Amino acid sequence: MRYAIVNNEKIVATKGAKGACPSCGSDLIAKCGELKVNHWSHQGNRNCDPWWENETEWHRAWKDNFVKEWQEVVHTDENSGEKHIADVKTNSDWVIEFQHSQISLEERNSRNNFYPKLIWVLDGTRRKRDKVAFHRLLDEFSIESDDPKFNAIIGQDDCRLIKEWHKSNALVFLDFKDEDELGRKTIWFLFPKIAENEAYLLSVLLDDFVDMHKMTVFDEFIENTISPFINKLAYKEKIKIEMGQSREREGKARMDMLLYGRRTL
């Protein structure tokens, strides 16, 4: 972890320093070398939070977008007492988890259920083929969207990262280290899977994502931009399913009439 508690303050690791774990209170030792980013570690192989992963420069760069007080915040379940350290927890109680390494579906679902308001930011560059596949879909398999500010693609399973995270019941943003035409960093919001053969995405400036949290307006973004489009997609898919079922019933009726010489209701 990046911070330990020293004299009731959150302190970064420096060579030879000692501190306390913000979650369990046990002693931490500073690990400062050349192979990994400086960090605090429990003595031995012990780690009080099984969800914690070794951090990369990518993690640290994302965390640095937010104030120290929001980083590595202990979240406790009021009923069970279970505790985990969130990468970032905002003043609006949004927990942001920055995920670089592979994570099991079981652990992902556990985190989704543990944090009431959870956002995943995924490192889309960990596997080189993910970024290549993603942009190939955008370039070659885009379809017309009901709203021009949203991107729609087909064949989304060709991008492994989308296939793995499309059914998440938490918010998911993909970071492919992309930039817009003005050189501004962008990330992609992945809408939850609704249609079987389609995926919908929204390009968001990284600075806007951060500022929405700092200005505590991210909930408004979800309410005014994301939720209405999800509802629109869900209604469109419902109509499509009902039309398919109607055509299936009509086809069965025609077949019955051909086979039996009468229409079956």
Task: Please provide a written account of the structure.
With 265 residues, the chain is of the alpha+beta class. It folds into 2 domains: 48 residues, no CATH class; 180 residues, no CATH class. It has 6 helices and 14 strands. The strands form 3 sheets. The chain has a 9-stranded mixed β-sheet. The chain has a 3-stranded antiparallel β-sheet with strand order 3-4-5, with no helix packed on it. Strands 1-2 form a two-stranded antiparallel sheet. Strand 7 and strand 8 form a beta hairpin. The radius of gyration is 23 Å and the shape is elongated. It starts with a strand and ends in a 5-residue tail after the last helix. The model has no long low-confidence stretch (mean pLDDT 88).
What is shown here, in short?
By secondary structure, the chain is α+β, with helices and mostly antiparallel strands. It contains six helices and 14 strands.
Q: What's the helix count?
A: 6
Report how far the terminal alpha carbons are from each other: 66 Å
Q: What kind of sheet is the major sheet? A: 9 strands, mixed
Query: Outline, from the CA principal axes?
Result: elongated
| Radius of gyration of CA atoms, rounded to a whole number | 23 Å
Give the class from helix and strand content and strand pairing.
Answer: alpha+beta
Beta-strand level of the residues, as a percent range?
A: 25-35%
